UniProtKB/TrEMBL annotation:
Classification via Gene3D superfamilies: 3.40.630.30, 3.40.630.90
A Pfam family matched in the record: Acetyltransf_18
Stored InterPro entries: Acyl/Acetyltrans_Enzymes (IPR052729), Acyl_CoA_acyltransferase (IPR016181), GNAT_dom (IPR000182), YitH/HolE_GNAT (IPR041496)
Protein's UniProt name: N-acetyltransferase domain-containing protein
Residue ranges of domain N-acetyltransferase in the record: 66-210
Amino acid sequence: MFTAQGQKHMTLGDVSKCKASRYEIRGENGEWLKGAFCFLHIPGTNSCAVHILGRQTVQTFIMVRYTIRPFRPEDSPDIIKVALRSTYQYSKESLESWIKHDPEEIIVAVLDAGKIIGLCATVIHNEEVAFAGAFCVLEEYRHLDVGDKLYNRNFKHVEDRNLGLNCTADKVMIYKNRGFKVIEESWSILEYEYLGPLNTEVLSDILPAGIELKEFEDSYLEAIYAYDRMLVGYNRREIVKDNCKEPSTKTLVAFKRGICVGYGSVKINIFDAARVGPLYCNDQNVGEVMFKRLLEQMPNTKGLAMSTISNNLIANGCVKRMGIPLHDNLLRLYTKEKMYVNTSKIFAHFDVDFSPF
């Protein structure tokens, strides 16, 4: 993008000395300029000479320059400003927890002036699996190929791992052309994002016989680790611990005869809504009670953010009984092969932007 800058008139001889480039431009009042253009970069400057074909004058415009680099903790306020223009579910604390898990996972596009204009995440979960999400570029900068540069940088980060992501149906072909050839067809991700009062009275508070729900304590971590690994198939100890110990997070753990049979968390997201996830349990009726009690631990939140698996009927039924509309239906794509887990145990995703389940 360019903005009008000084030097309204140049000779065509001056232009002929410049290196040819291709750009889109706006005029002095921000309008898109129409017509046939010849774009030429002026060597040794950050300006571009624009010859409007058929005219004898040339205007120069300042080029927007930006850098692609890893996320830094001090970037959080600017990243949240970018994310608030979309409907991302994560919290500020979650961003910082995931960065600890993989310091190179979130990259940002930053103007020379310091403004963040885009971000993208690719989280390495283990030697075989990575997951991409949180992809966002401010609309006024999307014509600068920011998205392509973020994507290419992140794709290099994951190397040869099986990379998964979620996308809407209208973007499937875009990602298939970028290497995401494998589509999960047996389920999809249902995204609920709602601002308004929450009616938890419609949810059951009756636990099945023999089940105890306990508030998180450090002493429960080993039991949670074992349950989580059994469900997803690989070790996530550090990110599970960080999730449970984030200051604004409330976590409940389900036990049966002393063995962990589920756990769930709720936290405040960037919209000040209650973001539920992960919420895993062997018995979906336990999941409903846990869901109710988690929400009741966040009475002052302004709504709900939650992502479920489409074939978990109880989870989706709970949200519908609360009168919360579906925000989006996301498809799961992979670069190599599908991941298989028992989706009946997934009441809510861990984090739809950073984790496959």
